[in-house]
Amino acid sequence: MSKTKKIETLTGEALLRRVKELENLSKEEKAKECGYYTVTKNGVERVNMMKFLNALIDAEGIQLDSKQGGNGRGGRSASYRISVQSNGNLLIGSAYTKQMGLQPGDEFEISLGRKHIRLRQLNADEIPEDEES
User: Fold this and answer.
1) Does residue 87 sit within a domain?
2) Residue 86 placed within a domain
3) In 3-133, where does DSSP find H-type helix?
4) Which domain holds residue 49?
């Protein structure tokens, strides 16, 4: 019997936060602490490094299967497409926020359409219409 209860497998932002918290551990220990391991019939714990690394890639929003841009350089580039993550979140990557010159703390008003989401940047002194008195 195992002495410890299996840790919940983390994904998305929760995974990224936890990996940052565990910066002093080895990658195998980080994977295990984030729930990427199994226990064999004999009670041996096996770390699932591929699942862990793939989850990190997904959490960062890196598209390995998409075609590379025509400039021949590697690295991230804005594909102007995102997918809903397994936890239900939509992640807008840093390629877009850098391109727009956004800073931490910048705020947006969200309006939902039938199959679209619109973001409208708010100025620090601007109050959304539904919050006005």
Assistant:
1) no
2) no
3) 12-21, 27-33, 49-60, 94-100
4) 12-60
Integer Cα distance of 30 and 32 in angstroms: 5
Q: Return per-residue pLDDT of the chain as tens, 133 residues.
A: 445 566 788 998 899 999 999 999 999 999 999 999 998 888 888 999 999 998 998 888 877 765 544 444 445 566 777 888 888 888 888 778 887 888 888 888 989 888 888 888 887 565 555 555 4
Q: Please choose, from the candidates 57, 10, 59, the residue with its C-alpha nearest in 3D space to the C-alpha of residue 36.
A: 10
What is the spatial distance between Cα 12 and Cα 111, in angstroms, rounded to a whole number?
A: 24
Packed helices 12-21 and 49-60: angle between N→C axes, nearest 10 degrees: 110
Is residue 33 in some structural domain? yes
Encoded amino acid at 131, one letter: E
Q: Which residue has the tokens 């002093």?
A: 24
DSSP one-letter code for 123: P
Backbone φ and ψ for 46, nearest 5 degrees, come out as: -120, 125
How many CB atoms within 10 Å of residue 37?
19
Q: How many domains does the chain have?
A: 2
56/113 Cα distance (integer angstroms): 31
